[in-house]
Amino acid sequence: MSWLWAMTDADLIARYDGRVPRYTSYPTAPHFHDGIGVGEYAHWLAALPPDAAISLYLHVPFCDRLCLYCGCHTTVVHHDRPKRNYAQALAREIGLVADRLGRRARVSQIHWGGGTPTSLPDDCLDALMELIRVRFDVAPDAEIAIEIDPASLPPGKLEALAQMGVTRASLGVQDFDETVQKAIGRMQSFDETRDAAEGLRRLGVASVNLDLIYGLPHQTEESVTRTARLALELAPDRAAVFGYAHVPWMKKHQKLMPEAALPMGLARLRQEATIRGVLAEEGGMVPVGLDHYAHPADAMANAAHTGALQRGFQGYTTDAASVLIGLGASAIGALPEGYVQNLPSIPAYEASLAQGRLPVARGVALSHEDRLRRAVIERIMCDLAVDLPAMAQTFGAQAAPLLAAAAPLSGFESDGLVEWNGARLRVTERGRPFVRNVAALFDAYLRGRESSQPRHARAV
């Protein structure tokens, strides 16, 4: 990289590397409130059209080890009893939601997340999947996805996943460098990861995905290059490459990491570019949105090409369902009327269900303007492009507020991050790492004092 380009990159980091939302929803979770509760959620469920396509997300807040980088709602549990109690609560919630729907609603996708979903006992996983199939009409071609820690796969667990009908599995890798692994409390060999991937494929799991992270302690351009090349040896169908979000004021265990060894600003940008070069240029994977990559034959690559890509709480997805029902402690659901989030405390979640109550903690109802801005932000995040007047026309709205919000795009264009003709914007390849900054221009909630609070991850 030449001196001139290095200076340019440094200037970009200085100008744009603030804290902005990841935009897995709009409005984003910090704007949820307790004015949305059980009554609103029950009404929203009952009002769903009979033909509404539904996705289910099941959150399992348990892990077998504490990974210091983790920002998820999870806890380390080694005994079966708490896990079995939680599985019973999940079963109650599945029943209550199905009762509110009043029918065996059609389900097109099921995603098990966490935490580490495979930490649940095999019989609990099997029983919950069977209950879902009884209470819902699971499509024969439904995608059933699960997140896996390859170092926490006891004997027989892969067979249990096959029994569940899993079609896609995401393997957490983060980094293969031992020095980095020690710093983040996650030792995991390449052989363990390879054995998990090969075992899944032998059992008929059609899609194996990998999760990588840059911006971790002791990472360098050289080390992330080695990790990305090892990842390619596993022939992933998809890869997600996330920038580490250091939020120790929210996740106290992150204070245990060596902060002085964290790469900052320019180093993070170069690590992201290095991984992108390995996966896309060496590996032939298709860059998707901000941080995903897909094999050219994968459905996600096709969705990105055709404009059908979607973005939700699990990141980028090909699922076109209009309804996401979140099940489990802290899980978030997205319905036409708005978002709802369950109680994050496991005891409170279980107690609510023991009393026969949906475990809703908070949410937000969508206004017409919210829906318009959500659509604009989603297309920017997914397509890296949007036609503002056309989008406003689709919603029967005036384009003027969107065009006013777009005024700073002239500066983005001068910096080479977007192409902007006064109506349609397109994020350039150079601007891809800064796409969240572009999307944030249309976030009506990011104003004044709230925008300066350290509640979001850094842009790069």
Question: What are the main properties of this structure?
Answer:
460 residues; alpha/beta; pyruvate-formate lyase- activating enzyme; Arc Repressor Mutant, subunit A; three-stranded antiparallel β-sheet; 19 strands; globular; disordered N terminus
Mean pLDDT: 93
CATH-assigned fold name of the largest domain: pyruvate-formate lyase- activating enzyme
Helix/strand/pairing class, anyone?
alpha/beta
CATH architecture of the largest domain: Alpha-Beta Horseshoe
**What is the count of distinct domains?**
2
Report, as a whole number of angstroms, the end-to-end distance: 19 Å
What is the 3D shape? globular
How many strands, which pairing sense, and closed or not: the largest β-sheet? 9 strands, mixed
Protein model, in words:
- The chain has 2 domains: 309 residues, tm_1862 like domain (pyruvate-formate lyase- activating enzyme, Alpha-Beta Horseshoe), CATH 3.80.30; 88 residues, Arc Repressor Mutant, subunit A.
- Helix content is 39%, strand content 21%.
- The chain is built from 17 helices and 19 strands.
- Helix 4 runs parallel beside helix 5.
- The N terminus is likely disordered.
What's the SSE blueprint?
Layout: H1 3-16, H2 38-46, E1 54-60, E2 62-63, E3 75-76, H3 80-101, E4 106-114, H4 122-135, E5 137-148, H5 157-164, E6 168-174, H6 178-184, H7 190-202, E7 207-214, H8 221-233, E8 238-243, H9 265-282, E9 286-288, E10 292-294, H10 299-306, E11 310-312, E12 315-317, E13 323-327, E14 332-335, E15 338-342, H11 346-354, E16 360-365, H12 368-383, E17 385-387, H13 388-394, H14 400-405, H15 409-414, E18 418-420, E19 424-427, H16 435-440, H17 448-452
Parallel strand pairs: 1-4, 1-13, 2-3, 4-5, 5-6, 6-7, 7-8
Antiparallel strand pairs: 8-10, 9-10, 11-12, 14-15, 15-16, 17-19, 18-19
Helix pairs in contact: 3-4, 3-11, 4-5, 8-9
EC number: 1.3.98.3
GO biological process, one term: protoporphyrinogen IX biosynthetic process
Binding site for [4Fe-4S] cluster: 63, 67, 70
